[in-house]
Amino acid sequence: MKYALLILSLLLISQSCPAVPALTVTRIAPGIYLHQSDHHWPDRNNHGEIANIGFIVGERCVAVIDSGGSPQQGIALRNAIRQITDKPVCYLINTHVHPDHIYGNIAFKQPGVRFVGHYKLARAMAVRGQHYLGRAEETLGLHINQDNIIPPDLQVRDSMTINLGNRELLLTAHAAAHTDNDLSVYDKATNTMWLADLLFLEHIPVIDGSIRGWLSELEKLEKNRYALVIPGHGTPVTDWPLSLQPEIAYLTGMATEIRSLIKQGGTLEQAVNSVGLDAKNHWRLFDEFHRKNITTAFAELEWED
Q1: Which of 5, 95, 130, 236 fits 196 for a cystine, CB–CB 3.0-4.6 Å?
Q2: 99-137 as b/e, with b when 16 or more CB fall inside 10 Å?
C-alpha cells in the first residue's frame, strides 16, 4: 500500500512541478557521472536547479550524490541513471541541507535505497524545513510539502565506508564549514574527491556555517592529493590543491579584514560596506552573497577568543 502511495506521489510531482528537459550527465571518470549546473540565483525560472549533482556506479549498485533542486530534477536524474546502467540505486547521499541539493530526494524514496548524510543533517532539515517549504512556491515555483524533505536513515558521525560492489566510497562528516552538516565523498577507485559545497569554483563561496571552521577544513584537505575534485558549484578540477587557492584567499582575506576592523572598534555596518570589495570581479553572484557572508563572518569573529 505504501509503495502504491509513493507511485501516486511521484505521478503528482510530475504533474505539479515545472517540466524539465532530460538531464545531461557526463562521465568525468570511470563510473562517475556529473550533471554540472550553471551559476544562477535560485528563482522561479530555474526552480532551484543550480547545483552539481551526479552518481557513482559500482558492480552491485549506484550511489547518488545530491538529488537536485526540485522533485522533477530528481526524477530526471533517476531517468538518466537508468539510461546508463541497469544497476539499482542503493544509496542517496546528501552532502548538506541546502534545497538545491535535497529537493529531488523523493524521486529515490523506494525499496532498497538508503538515505545517507552528516549526523547533524536530520536536525538541520527539521529546523529549516518549514521555512524552506514556506518559500518554495514563492521563490522557486515548486509545489512541495514535508514529504519532500527526507532525512538520512544512515548518519555519518566521523567517517564511514560504503561499498557499491568492488567500489568503496569513504564518507567524511566535516566540522562546521560551509554549513554545520557538510559531507564529502571520496572514491578510492579513481582518487576522486566529491567535495560538494566545501568547494566553490567561479561561484562565490557562501558561508552558512563557520568561516573559521571552513578554513580549518580546507587546510586539512589542501594537504591531500586528488586526481579529480568535484565542487558543488563550478567545473571539476585536476590541479588540486592549486584550484583551491581562490576560495582560501577569499575567506582568509575576509577574516583578516573583519578582525582588523573589530580591533579598531568598527561596526557590522562598516564591515558590510568595506570588507572584501576588491574580490568583486573574481566571483560570480558576488552581489547576491557577499554581504551575507560578511554578516555571518562578523557575527562569529566578533566573539572569538
Answers
A1: 95
A2: bbbbbbbbbbbeeebebbbbebbbebbeeeeeebbeebe
